[in-house]
Every structure is written in structure tokens, then in C-alpha cells.
Amino acid sequence: MLTDTQRAFMQRMRSAVQIAQAKGAIFNTVAVIAQAALESGWGTSHLATAANNLFGVKATPQQVHAGAALALPTREYYGGRWIRETDYWAEYPSWNEAILAYAVLIGSLPWFHDALAHADLPHGDGDALAWLRGLEETGRPDWATDPHYVAIVSALFPAVQDGLSAT
User: Is residue 151 domain-resident?
Assistant: First the structure.
């Protein structure tokens, strides 16, 4: 059973996903919404509310220089331990623009291309778990530093699927 916050998030995400897809974004809807739910605290994190950054996407040097970035603390997993640091995060004008930017990032970085085969039909096979695994390949840059990222995100799949069927 979804909370009121989760239901509101799902309704807003459904609309944002549809707009991003209408603009040509290719991704796996269940995986993307689950990632956004985790990374944004179901849309309630400061990064999500202040910068419309749903995925924890770090800012490029150009975004920092242009003032289109938000400095916030984070925890990253390096060398077998968690490290606290402050980093710069990308800002987006809306949730659908954050989703569109996510899709462009996945499509443009070759180390994420394994995920594309698992995008929604008709572009891929629709396998949400395989999409996530395509973002987390050993020996290449990963989407997240948490070694348990795929398991944590995929644990949200049932809630996301419930939310998609209810909206």
C-alpha cells in the first residue's frame, strides 16, 4: 500500500515520464521511477524540491560555472567504505526535463549502452532489473557507488508497479 506521498510522487512521475517519452526519451519506466523514488526520497529530498534532480545527477563543470548547480553533501562508497563529501548537483527546470536528461545521459555514454536493450517496448525487452544491471557493470563507471544499488532500487519495483497500475 502506497503512502499519500508515494501516490502523489507516482502521479507526478507518470505525467513527467509521458512528457519525456513524447520528446523522444527511451528508458525503462519501472526502473526509472524506482531510481527516482530512491534517489529523491519519493520526490521529497532537497535536491528534488530545489533542483528537480530526481536521479542524483552530478553537475558538469559547465553547469557549475553557469550557476546551474546546487552544492549539497553526499555519501559515496569508495575503497570499501562510505565517505562524506560535498558535491555539485545538476539543476533542471522540471521533472520531465530531469528524466529527458537522464535518458540522454544513458544513451550517450557507451558504458551504459547495455541498459538500452531493456528499455520499454518497442525499443527494448522491458526488463527493469536488466536495465539496472546494465547501469552497474563491474569494471566500468557505474550509475551509483553503493555496491547494493541494484538490490535497493529493485526492491522498490513492486511499489512502483502498484503505483503505475493505480494512476
Answer: yes
